[in-house]
Design a protein that fits this description.
- By secondary structure, this protein is of the alpha+beta class.
- The chain has 2 domains: 235 residues, no CATH class; 114 residues, Heat Shock Protein 90 (2-Layer Sandwich).
- The chain contains 11 helices and 5 strands; from the N terminus they run H-H-H-H-H-H-H-H-H-E-H-E-E-H-E-E.
- A 5-stranded mixed β-sheet has the order 1-2-3-5-4, covered by helices on one side.
- Helix 1 packs antiparallel against helix 3, helix 1 runs antiparallel to helix 5 and helix 10 packs antiparallel against helix 11.
- The longest helix is centred in the middle third of the chain and has 78 residues.
- It is an enzyme of class 2 (transferase).
- This is histidine kinase.
- InterPro entries: HATPase_C_sf, Sensor_HK_TwoCompSys, Sig_transdc_His_kin_sub3_dim/P.
- One of its GO terms (molecular function) is phosphorelay sensor kinase activity.
Length: 367
């Protein structure tokens, strides 16, 4: 059974039922012309349930004025139960200044009969008891209103989290496609450029370069097809074939005609898998950028394996301004930062320098 506190309409409907019950009591214990007071009060909360935009001050005026008259002339005894329910409904809704004033007047209303020929019960404790009852209704409505505000904030937070998850998933897909397609086609272009330059002087070497370009292109298409299939099933894209081996990454670019000076200091075998894969991602991206933007397909790569960290430095001649979107460098910075590494990239003395420092082992897997 749904809680009547879940929505304003359900809460108003529940208050209307309570008001009808209190109205029956008012009829039952009415004296003299008190039944007229009960008749006026009886439909008030029902009208409020059918009219959600009904002003709060109007509802409180509707129920408070007849109640004060009935109590002052001692013809009703339980009509303040209806006022209490109405006060809870008004307190739970958005309020205007006029509503706030009406709430204050209603809270003081149990003491108004004292100005007339009130009963001794009213003079001793009755007014304070009704005041306490109204205070409970006001507090209950305030608590319900706070609960609705929290529910609304929870829904907004849930929506923001869902939007962030979708955006993150799109970024991941863009990064994976960039890695798979961008790097493969960069190597293909290197092979094609080399083949074009030696087509007349060495046809056999040019044909070999074209075959290499075809092989890299087919491998890239297979990886792209596999990645799309896994993304469609909700799984992350697979790693490229050179994942985790920087020397193999460099070899692939060398085979495509790129001149790379590689110096490795220390043993890469002692580096954990995650830092090694991130290092290869950075190396692959920077060599691809060098092939695209440097005046000549040349780069110097230094890898130093220390006791606690692995440092990578890739340097190439600074060419024209990069025409890319910057997605690759941004993605690399995020990946390096994800394992507590440091990423720096920028021009220095006519060269484009990329420097990365990675932990040799992740803190979570060291023993």
């Amino acid at each position: 059974m749904p809680s009547p506190l879940r929505s304003r309409d359900q809460f108003a409907a529940a208050a209307a039922l309570l008001g009808l019950g209190a109205g029956v009591l008012t009829f039952a214990y009415a004296e003299s012309w008190g039944w007229l007071v009960a008749l006026v009060l009886f439909p008030a909360l029902v009208v409020r349930a059918c009219w959600p935009a009904m002003p709060g001050w109007l509802l409180l005026t509707w129920v408070a004025v007849p109640t004060i008259a009935g109590e002052a002339f001692r013809v009703t005894q339980t009509s303040y139960l209806i006022v209490t329910a109405a006060l809870a409904v008004v307190a739970a809704a958005r309020r205007s200044r006029l509503d706030t004033v009406a709430i204050g007047v209603t809270m003081a209303s149990p003491f108004f009969p004292l100005l007339f020929e009130a009963s001794d019960w009213h003079r001793r404790i009755g007014a304070w008891l009704w005041f306490g009852g109204l205070l409970v209704g006001l507090a209950f409505g305030h608590v319900v209103r706070k609960q609705w505000m929290l529910i609304a904030e929870l829904d907004r937070t849930r929506t923001r989290l869902a939007e962030a998850a979708v955006a993150e998933d799109r970024q991941r897909m863009a990064r994976d496609l960039h890695d798979l397609v961008g790097h493969s086609f960069s190597v293909v272009l290197l092979h094609l450029s080399g083949a074009r330059m030696i087509l007349n002087s060495s046809p056999e070497a040019a044909a070999e370069a074209l075959r290499d370009a075809e092989a890299v292109g087919r491998r890239g298409m297979d990886e792209l097809r596999q990645a799309l299939m896994l993304m469609h099933e909700g799984s992350p894209a697979p790693a490229t074939s050179e994942a985790g081996d920087p020397e193999q990454v460099v070899a692939g670019y060398r085979d495509a005609g790129m001149r790379i000076d590689l110096v490795v200091t220390g043993a890469l075998d002692g580096v954990s898998a995650a830092p090694r894969m991130v290092l290869c991602d950075v190396l692959r991206e920077t060599l691809t950028n060098a092939a695209k933007h440097a005046p000549a397909p040349e780069a110097a790569v230094r890898i130093e394996v220390g006791l606690d960290e692995v440092a990578l430095r890739v340097e190439n001649a600074l060419g024209a301004a990069p025409a890319g979107s910057g997605l690759g460098l941004t993605g690399l910075e995020h990946r390096v930062g994800a394992i507590d590494g440091v990423f720096r990239a920028g021009p220095q003395a006519g060269h484009w320098i990329v420097e990365v420092s990675l932990p040799r082992r992740l803190a979570a897997v060291t023993s």
